[in-house]
Amino acid sequence: MNKKVKVFSTPTCPYCIHAKDFLRENNIEFENIDVSQNQEKAQEMVNLSGQMGVPVIAIDETIVVGFDKNKIKQLLNI
Asked: Domain 16-76 belongs to what architecture?
């Protein structure tokens, strides 16, 4: 069962880079959304998470704020 994964991030955020590397290492497909370039998507991220900080990772309907590796592994069954 494939879960829909979106990563709201910025290019300069080290935790964003770690999160995306972790997903790639586990062969998880994800949509990367650069909120530094897209104000509309930045607002969507704030609406979803209540947070201005990145990364915000949406796994189906569940929102993970920050690079919480254990929670991500649990949600993706890896």
From this structure: 3-Layer(aba) Sandwich (3.40)
Tell me which DSSP letter residue 37 carries: T
> Is beta strand 31-34 parallel, antiparallel or unpaired with respect to 56-59?
unpaired
pTM over 0.85: yes
- On the question of pLDDT at 37 being above 90, the answer is yes
Number of helical (H) and strand (E) elements in the chain, helices listed first:
3, 4
Q: Is the dihedral of CA 8, 9, 14, 19 positive or negative?
A: positive
Q: Contact, 45 vs 51, CB < 8 A?
A: yes
| Centroid of chain to Cα 73 | 13
